[in-house]
User: Which sequence fits this backbone?
């Protein structure tokens, strides 16, 4: 979808501006990873950022499969969990230096990928998804039945400070561990970006677009898929180990279906068609699972609603949406786009408020003071219903106005009124 | 001389239906060979068998004397036989140039170390660039393949086959769905692109067939009923009977 927009985008853009735009997501990512811990030292902030960094690597590794080779996997957590598990066991046995641990985890993940890829890459499409679903369940079941390896209920714990000493760092404090995680996150993102630009990944795209044609130019689709699975599992192993360093624990949940689902959700929310899409998705997901979750127990409901909204209104994710809006801005200019954008934002805000009010009221009724935001429990239901209806009305109205502007604009473009 | 493609007593059954009945076909090196026949004669099936997309029930296919009957499509392509498709297929979300680079990169694999699959290679890019010019898509270099016009996609399809470095080409109805001007351009393209290569093509447009082919084989109901030069085919009574006189109109048209 995005590609058609680029074709119509006739306005010449200078090379420098193009390069500047390409650098924007990198700068944003660097700012996100570096600035907050320098400004504030609150523990939840560092914990959130560490989780985000691990999730970024995880989602990007998932997108090697989904966006890169068109392989939908339901068992990606197995790769990251097994990688992290191998890293944890080796760390506890041999006391390896902590900074090298993600590499060990990555290799462990890649080995696991090399194993399951043998079976899974026989097929693509739905069959691949089903095989990975089975393998994910298999590993999750193994985690419960093999307590010696997976640590059973308690999981396998490590002590960050126990590794081979690195002068100047003990990695005991969360901030030092975070510095290590952020560094590895940056390294992995760079590595995956480099990988995504290689001729090999181009071939993977070709296999994704049309495996039959790819075979007819002499490429073995299965081998390409296999290689992508191994790479993806390698980076998933790194991501799993970053999580291990953060919480000093690899548990049975880290190989489970829930985690496989959450990385899929993060990637789809962000958008799999753009390299930085999964990064956006990872940030959004951890925002919900850490920040929103610390305020209300309805966070999973909000995440689900947000996910459905994104999939329905912009199937190519947030990154795809931004890309389309940027193309539109370049075509029509600020003057046309700004009012439209304002209506859209207003509508989104109104809808969000309406939903949050309603949901929080229900939760407050149900859980009373257990819910952190419990002011609503004392509120008069009549007023509440009125407020929700009012907000929903505003949301509906502004949404319609924006949609009408959309139609008018596209009619004008079709009629050739706008050059 | 060893034939470029030798099909020997090839049989293909789909259940009880016998689509190919002991097909024999010899394509000499460096000739342009056309395969014609009414709808349902088994031309596309024969193509799929030669290119490895399906397995024959019996018989043997050779490429320059080597048995390729049971090889995978990719292995057959790596031996120098490339095909185009009847329904246009290309890598829809890649740019035109990237499409060709994929093919050139695989064709170039013998001259590369294993890690060079991960680095850009000048040789492959140059080969892709050359093919890009030869199929006249130079101006659409950065366009996304899915947005090309139909004729351009056919040209890209041919380009993919060329870029894979093949010495033998199978083209499945290369001018299907094109208007007169586009078809004429496509014929010129095929003529220049196949110089020094072997070509086997399926085609319905008799102007194209009689204008381009050195030899023609006629496939009717799963059997090759005649093989010969265009003139010989034109005057062959069995062919005339199979085509119920259609071929007369065509050849008269071609003579005009």
Assistant:
């Amino acid at each position: 979808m995005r590609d058609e927009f680029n074709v119509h985008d006739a306005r010449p853009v200078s090379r420098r501006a193009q390069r500047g735009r390409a650098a924007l997501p990198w700068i944003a990512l660097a700012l996100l990873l570096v600035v907050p811990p320098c400004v504030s030292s609150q523990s939840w902030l560092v914990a959130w950022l560490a989780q985000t960094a691990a999730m970024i690597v995880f989602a990007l590794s998932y997108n090697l499969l989904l966006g890169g080779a068109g392989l939908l996997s339901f068992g990606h957590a197995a790769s990251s969990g097994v990688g992290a598990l191998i890293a944890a066991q080796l760390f506890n046995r041999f006391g390896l230096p902590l900074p090298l641990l993600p590499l060990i985890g990555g290799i462990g993940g890649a080995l696991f990928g090399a194993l399951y890829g043998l079976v899974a890459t026989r097929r693509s499409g739905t069959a691949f998804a089903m095989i990975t679903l089975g393998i994910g369940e298999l590993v999750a079941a193994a985690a419960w039945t093999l307590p010696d390896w997976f640590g059973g209920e308690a999981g396998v714990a490590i002590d960050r400070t126990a590794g081979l000493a690195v002068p100047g760092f003990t990695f005991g404090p969360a901030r030092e561990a975070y510095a290590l995680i952020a560094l590895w996150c940056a390294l992995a993102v760079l590595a995956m970006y480099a990988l995504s630009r290689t001729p090999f990944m181009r071939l993977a795209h070709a296999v994704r677009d049309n495996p039959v044609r790819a075979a007819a130019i002499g490429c073995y689709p299965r081998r390409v898929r296999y290689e992508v699975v191994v790479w993806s599992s390698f980076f998933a192993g790194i991501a799993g180990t970053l999580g291990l360093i953060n919480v000093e624990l690899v548990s049975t949940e880290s190989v489970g279906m829930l985690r496989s689902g959450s990385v899929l959700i993060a990637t789809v929310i962000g958008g799999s068609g753009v390299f930085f899409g999964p990064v956006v998705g990872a940030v959004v997901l951890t925002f919900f699972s850490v920040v929103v979750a610390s305020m209300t127990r309805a966070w999973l409901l909000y995440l689900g609603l947000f996910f459905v909204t994104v999939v329905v209104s912009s199937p190519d994710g947030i990154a795809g949406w931004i890309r389309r809006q940027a193309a539109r801005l370049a075509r029509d200019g600020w003057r046309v786009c700004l009012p439209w954008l304002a209506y859209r934002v207003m509508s989104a805000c109104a809808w969000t408020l309406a939903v949050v009010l309603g949901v929080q009221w229900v939760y407050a009724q149900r859980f009373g003071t257990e819910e952190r935001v419990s002011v609503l429990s004392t509120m008069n239901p009549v007023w509440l219903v009125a407020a929700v209806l009012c907000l929903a009305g505003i949301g509906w109205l502004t949404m319609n106005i924006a949609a009408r502007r959309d139609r008018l604009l596209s009619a004008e473009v079709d009629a050739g009124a706008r050059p | 001389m060893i034939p470029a493609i030798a099909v020997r007593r090839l049989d293909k059954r789909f259940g009880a239906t016998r689509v190919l009945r002991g097909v024999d076909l010899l394509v000499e090196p460096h000739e342009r060979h056309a395969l014609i026949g009414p709808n349902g004669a088994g031309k596309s099936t024969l193509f799929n068998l030669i290119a490895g997309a399906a397995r024959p029930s019996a018989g043997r296919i050779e490429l320059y004397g080597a048995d390729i009957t049971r090889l995978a499509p990719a292995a057959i392509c790596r031996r120098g036989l490339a095909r185009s498709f009847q329904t246009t297929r290309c890598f829809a979300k890649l740019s035109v140039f990237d499409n060709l680079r994929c093919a050139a990169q695989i064709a170039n694999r013998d001259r590369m170390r294993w890690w060079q699959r991960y680095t850009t290679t000048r040789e492959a890019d140059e080969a892709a660039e050359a093919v890009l010019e030869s199929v006249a898509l130079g101006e659409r270099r950065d366009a996304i393949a899915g947005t090309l016009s139909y004729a351009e996609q056919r040209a890209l399809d041919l380009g993919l086959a060329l870029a894979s470095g093949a010495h033998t080409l199978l083209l499945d109805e290369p001018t299907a769905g094109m208007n007169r001007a586009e078809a004429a351009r496509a014929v010129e393209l095929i003529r220049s692109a196949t110089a020094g290569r072997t070509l086997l093509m399926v085609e319905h447009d008799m102007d194209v067939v009689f204008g381009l082919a050195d030899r023609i084989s006629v496939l009717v109901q799963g059997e090759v009923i005649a093989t010969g030069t265009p003139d010989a085919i034109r005057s062959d009574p069995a062919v005339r009977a199979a085509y119920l006189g259609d071929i007369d109109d065509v050849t008269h048209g071609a003579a005009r």
